[in-house]
Amino acid sequence: MSANTFGNAGFSVLLPGARLEGRCGPTNARVRCHLGLKIPPGCELVVGGEPQCWAEGHCLLVDDSFLNTVAHNGSPEDGPRVVFIVDLWHPNVAGAERQALDFVFAPDP
């Protein structure tokens, strides 16, 4: 999904005590793949009112167009929660639609 502005990849680090309140992604044309790298106890992700579970070394697919919150309720001794996030095309977006979205939402040169 790198040919348009909705495609991203990067590390997400959340310190103990941090909370990202309800937010929605900009589109339902993507799903986000979260690869758990360091998941201390007390970390939570709720998407569309449904609790999700990260696991170290495993991927979790999330449609972030739904309201989602993230929290790290662990102690400072637990250290940060670290996930690698990469955006993928939603499987229901057809090839022609992908091409159109890439054209319309191409990143600035």
From TrEMBL:
A single GO cellular-component term on record: membrane
GO MF entry, a single one: dioxygenase activity
Annotated signal peptide: none
Record keywords: Dioxygenase, Oxidoreductase
PANTHER family: ASPARTATE BETA-HYDROXYLASE DOMAIN-CONTAINING PROTEIN 1, ASPARTATE BETA-HYDROXYLASE DOMAIN-CONTAINING PROTEIN 2
Family: Belongs to the aspartyl/asparaginyl beta-hydroxylase family.
Descriptive protein name: Aspartate beta-hydroxylase domain-containing protein 1 isoform X3
Annotated organism of origin: Leptonychotes weddellii (Weddell seal)
Lineage: Eukaryota, Metazoa, Chordata, Craniata, Vertebrata
